Amino acid sequence: MAFIAEQANGKASDGFKRIMEIQPKELHERVPFFCGSPKMVEKAEEFMARQRDRENG
Fold it and tell me: What pTM, to 2 d.p., does this model score?
């Protein structure tokens, strides 16, 4: 899905980095998945960053 989205000028992210850059460490590994237009995925990344900042103080 991430590959297809990127080929269609979209974006795919786990909220912090590009899905295609994630190296799986085990079979059936799960990560958050945001896929769609660059604008909407970047908005989701902003939400994730704000939440991380709140949790880290």
Answer: 0.83
Distance CA 42, CA 46 (A): 6
d(CA 34, CA 1): 10
Assigned CATH topology for domain 2-56: D-Maltodextrin-Binding Protein; domain 2 (3.40.190)
- In angstroms, the CA 4 to CA 50 distance is 28
Q: What is the mean pLDDT of residues 14-43?
A: 96
- Taking the CB of residue 34, how many other CB atoms lie within 10 A of it? 20
Q: What is the mean pLDDT of residues 21-47?
A: 96
Token couple for 22: 């994630």
